[in-house]
Amino acid sequence: MIETLSIRDLSRRCKEETGRYRRGEPYSERYCLELFRRAIVQRDDDAWTVTYEQYADMVRRWLGPSCEGDEEPVTRTFERFWQALDGAKFARFGSLSAVLQYLKMCAHATRIDRLRATRSAGREEPLDDMREVPDPDDVEDPVIRRVDAADFWSMVQSALGDERELLVIYLSYAIGLTPRDICRRHGAEFPDVSDVYRLKRSALDRLRRRFR
To answer: How far apart are CA 73 and CA 29, in angstroms?
Structure first.
């Protein structure tokens, strides 16, 4: 039973399965997902340490060159992730992919905070591909076109409390997926395209009210 494995064994199996995934071989995500579960649901410090070590390099890549050589943004990303989730929220994630997408969203939020702080200190740096939020492809909403990425993601973080709404907005505007793409790629979390439309509209309605 996977629940009886030690943290050390889980870590080893997680690394092995990640290696298989990267080589394009059949793999299982359950060992890595169990590490996250113990770290978040059980608040197991050893599991959290191993999870950090396993995914820190991935977070560094997401943070980009502007954070290179600085461990603080990596730590801040994991802190966001840790503080935002609990057992009930974690249970809504149906796959390792969904967990990692949320972690990636936390990395983007950290990067944007850092860039905004740099700009406010008088050291202008470009926001690269995050300068503007793409136009929505299925739901017309002027709020998306009228704010820059930093303001948008700040609004998202503060206005949306539902993890599925956050994920839909992230996949729609940071990744650029249509509702049908989201269903195809993340069917475990979003099996019905109408559910994606509903979550997206609900989130945008709240963001529109907050923006006004």
So the answer is: 26
